[in-house]
């Protein structure tokens, strides 16, 4: 038995996180257990990562069998799992080429660097401006916090990369006014995740595509949270019928094993020529073997269809709870990325709901201070949804009744 506890965190860890009290030690599907054996229903899914549940047996097998063959080579060599996963991604999407990284932030970093480089090579250094959106989240590297639309994440880290404009999300008029021949890229999330579970409108998505074409700017979709089945499609852009030029994928891509990818159309991919960018671990054989299996399981039509069936169950329960307690302004999002926006009376209290839920043995998330977020496993069972929602109702009652 391990001697560490939550107090150990405060002693030996950098204080950039403030983890909740319990430490889960075991997981299976959409359930977790702590050291004392308490059981929890998990609607957080490692923040939209464990799309196939905890310790999915097929992913465990993929990891085990690859771990006995080959772990890592570096990019001096390529490896079979990486090539297999890249082929699958190319065959299933708009993309012709893939670059592997280890985290979402790194995949975005690659996309933003590619966009700058492509514009520089083809149009000159004047064309370097990136248009991004308020509340957007793109990662925690210096470039990605700068492109992200939440100033709190870049404050104090300056001087920041320049040439980035933040516009109101879903505002077509402002985009038309701001985009120009100097724009090298427009980047957006199909559903802003961290920013409050706010979907891009169909018109907005189409307009971004249209204006990027008009001004020779690269359209980048950050599908790190929306990708790999989360919205009921393999990638959310498929729902909009609008193809990006670059797309970044992470979170569910490895089902819990760290891996990320940037997908690119051929024309743009060539900007990252030999030596221009890289990553020691990117395309690691273990990660790609797990990613490849996760891809097979998630790209299954029955699984994808099940996502919106499950969403309907969540929505029905949330509506029922709201009729009783009047706490939500709106339930929004796509597929199993669900945001319950608190009404006027409960603004700023999302964390209270999260803590109250944990006391009822339920894990949920927030998306900013005003939105409760659910991002469960895509294969969460009806019984687990039922059980979790009973716990959630109790948590809501606790917060409402003080
Ligand atoms: C989580 C997330 C990221 C950052 O991914 P990391 O793996 O934490 O670097 C970037 N963009 C979006 C939309 C995300 O949800």
UniProtKB/TrEMBL annotation:
Record pathway: Amino-acid biosynthesis; L-arginine biosynthesis; N(2)-acetyl-L-ornithine from L-glutamate: step 4/4
InterPro entries assigned to the protein according to its UniProt record, in alphabetical order: Ac/SucOrn_transaminase_bac, AcOrn/SuccOrn_fam, Aminotrans_3, Aminotrans_3_PPA_site, Class-III_PLP-dep_AT, PyrdxlP-dep_Trfase, PyrdxlP-dep_Trfase_major, PyrdxlP-dep_Trfase_small
Binding positions for pyridoxal 5'-phosphate per the UniProt entry: 137, 222-225, 280
Reaction(s) the record says it catalyses: N(2)-acetyl-L-ornithine + 2-oxoglutarate = N-acetyl-L-glutamate 5-semialdehyde + L-glutamate
Gene3D superfamilies: Aspartate Aminotransferase, domain 1, Type I PLP-dependent aspartate aminotransferase-like (Major domain)
Subcellular location: Cytoplasm
N6-(pyridoxal phosphate)lysine modified-residue sites: 251
Keyword Phosphoprotein appears in the UniProt entry: no
Keyword Transferase: yes
Residue positions binding N(2)-acetyl-L-ornithine: 140, 279
EC number(s) on file: 2.6.1.11
Cofactor remark from the record: Binds 1 pyridoxal phosphate per subunit.
Alphabetically ordered keywords of this record: Amino-acid biosynthesis, Aminotransferase, Arginine biosynthesis, Cytoplasm, Pyridoxal phosphate, Transferase
Molecular-function annotations in GO: transaminase activity
Pfam families noted in UniProt: Aminotran_3 (PF00202)
UniProt cofactor(s): pyridoxal 5'-phosphate
PANTHER family in UniProt: AMINOTRANSFERASE CLASS III, SUCCINYLORNITHINE TRANSAMINASE
Other facts noted in the record for this chain: May also have succinyldiaminopimelate aminotransferase activity, thus carrying out the corresponding step in lysine biosynthesis.
Family: Belongs to the class-III pyridoxal-phosphate-dependent aminotransferase family. ArgD subfamily.
Subunit structure: Homodimer.
Protein name: Acetylornithine aminotransferase
């Amino acid at each position: 038995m391990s001697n560490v506890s939550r107090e150990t965190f405060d002693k030996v860890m950098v204080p950039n996180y403030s983890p909740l009290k319990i430490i889960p030690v075991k997981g299976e599907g959409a359930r977790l257990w702590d050291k004392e054996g308490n059981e929890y229903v998990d609607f957080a899914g490692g923040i939209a990562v464990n799309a196939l549940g905890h310790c999915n047996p097929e992913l465990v097998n993929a990891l085990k069998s690859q771990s006995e063959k080959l772990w890592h080579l570096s990019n001096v060599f390529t490896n079979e799992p990486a090539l297999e996963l890249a082929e699958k991604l190319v065959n299933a999407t708009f993309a012709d080429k893939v670059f592997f990284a280890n985290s979402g932030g790194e995949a975005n970093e690659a996309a933003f660097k590619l966009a700058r480089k492509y514009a520089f090579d083809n149009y000159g250094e004047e064309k370097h401006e990136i248009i991004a959106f308020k509340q957007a989240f793109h990662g925690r590297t210096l470039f990605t916090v700068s492109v992200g639309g939440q100033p709190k994440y870049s404050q104090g880290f300056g001087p920041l990369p320049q040439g980035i404009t933040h516009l109101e999300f879903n505002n077509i008029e402002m985009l038309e006014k701001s985009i120009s021949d100097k724009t090298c890229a427009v980047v957006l999330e199909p559903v802003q995740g961290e920013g409050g579970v706010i979907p891009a409108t169909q018109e907005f998505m189409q307009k971004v595509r249209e204006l990027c074409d008009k001004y020779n700017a690269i359209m980048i979709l950050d599908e790190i949270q929306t990708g790999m089945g989360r919205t009921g499609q393999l990638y959310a852009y498929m729902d909009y019928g609008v193809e990006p030029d670059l797309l970044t994928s992470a979170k569910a891509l490895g089902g819990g094993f760290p891996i990320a990818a940037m997908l690119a159309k051929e024309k743009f991919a060539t900007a990252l020529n030999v030596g221009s960018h890289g990553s020691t671990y990117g395309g690691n054989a273990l990660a790609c073997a797990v990613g490849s299996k996760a891809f097979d399981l998630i790209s299954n039509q029955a699984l994808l269809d099940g996502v919106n069936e499950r969403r309907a169950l969540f929505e029905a329960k949330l509506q029922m709870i709201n009729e009783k307690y009047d706490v939500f302004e709106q339930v929004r999002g796509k597929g199993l990325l669900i945001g319950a926006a608190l009404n006027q009376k409960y603004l700023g209290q999302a964390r209270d709901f999260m803590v109250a839920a944990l006391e009822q043995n339920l894990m949920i998330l927030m998306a900013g201070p005003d939105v409760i977020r659910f991002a469960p496993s895509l294969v969460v069972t009806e019984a687990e949804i039922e059980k979790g929602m009973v716990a959630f109702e109790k948590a809501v009652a606790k917060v409402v009744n003080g």
